[in-house]
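Give me structure tokens for this 223-residue protein.
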Amino acid sequence: MKTAKLVKRFRVDKPEKFKLAQWDPSDTCDLNIEKDDAKAFLAQGIERLSDLQERLYAQDRWALLVIFQAMDTAGKDSAIKHVMSGINPQGCDVRSFKRPSDEENDHDFLWRSSVRLPERGRIGIFNRSYYEEVLIVRVHKDGLGREKLPPSLVDEEVWKNRFKDIRAYERYLIRNGTLVLKFYLHLSKDEQRRRFLERLNNHRSRTSSSASIGTSTWWRTKT
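Here you go.
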């Protein structure tokens, strides 16, 4: 019951009126609980997911596509690792989308996602997705150039058209038995900066420790 209320609160039912800036990324929904309680809460959800996966596989009619989008350091990898830990790996595929290959750039922008869609009865998880084509590619214009579109199609309507294509694509998937669930992990710029600095400090600490160990080993060997 508690999970259902959380989902309802954060589900976007009217996207045309949704503004990300109106949401506080530090909102915990009053889930200020101890770590052990959080683990127990997570375990309940994992058990539920495992049961639903078995039903999905047995029915063999629907496929489930789960999309994670977020800024760097928001925790996509951790969410996939922990939340999906109870799922049978034989019925689940995780795909990470990085810079497109030459082969992928020789196809339409939705092609590389299409060839990685889950089969019926299976779960597909996209770590980033075709939404990068209206995010990263939009910011770094050289990415659009690598896709080798005919010049006449690269006009001021190109991004608006891609949004239309994505909406049509997702409607097509749903009408053909692939349920699409999309999650955006939201964090503030200040929190992102803090996490970047923490990563940097941890990296420096590990590098320093490795250098010390290496020097100590070299000294003992020389003597």
